[in-house]
Amino acid sequence: MRLAVTGATGFIGARLIDRALSRGYEVTALARDPERVAAGMGSGLRIERWSVGDPLPPLGRTDAVLHLAAYIPADLSDARQAARCFEINTNGAIQVGMEAASQGVKRFVLFGSAQVYALGAGPASEASPAFPVHRASYYLASKLAAEICLLALGKSNAMPVTVLRLASVYGPGMHDTGMVPVFVRTLGNGRSLVIQDGGQYSVDLVYVDDVVTLALEAAERAEGGVFNAGSGRASTSLEAAQIVADAVGAERQLIAVEGGSTDAAPRGFRALDVSKAANELNYAPLSFREGIEAWKSMTGLTDFRTGA
Questions:
Q1: Which CA distances in Å does 229 have to 159, 206, 218?
Q2: Separation between Cα atoms, residue 292 and residue 304, nearest integer Å
Q3: What range does the domain containing 84 cover?
């Protein structure tokens, strides 16, 4: 199996390449900063300097391109960032798809976002309305536009395109910012943690290795379409903090809650219905508690407490 991966130095991309190499796949890593790719990962790894907008290098008989490279603005509410989002995330993705198809690539996997779903009751399925106007609208609209265009491109070029709509991904190698790593570091060091919004912010948290497993399954055999990549359930910020506290051996009394009210509108994002991925791609994600324990087991308690 031969793969090409864009966004190779990112949190998910690096994990994906590592897993693919461990399976004996050949991987071409396309990275803006090639020196940041771990060259010692295996003999099956080829590294190419590439940025979105550049022509794809010759990929040979590549079975699948997995496109993770994207532009995420520092200020997600700044309308002036919309043009750049569409330039990179939509037009750039279309260019990658067109050039992959012209090189005879068999499959294309696009990493999208499950935050495109409109607010609503119950878990969101792939058929739920997508209308991202509540947060990060310019970024999310560019990602959704890329989905539509690439799915159409794939059909016209006989290259199956699979879209993975990712929930909130966590695990080893992730950036220091974000809810989960902050919880891990704070509670792991025995410090008090204050949670806002009454601890009721809710989000589907998915372990990175589950996303990677699903992506490789899609690259191997998916015939196109949209698939949710979440845990299948939502966790509130308070629930997540309590699970992290248990994992690091911290007292739950370190967790304090501020703000929020019983009549406040729910904050956060919907849980994902992952039954389609489970039925068609053998997807079996871990719960947040199971994922946290898997992360701790892999890194050891000391490194886990630092978010390594």
A1: 21, 8, 11
A2: 9
A3: 2-175+205-233+270-287
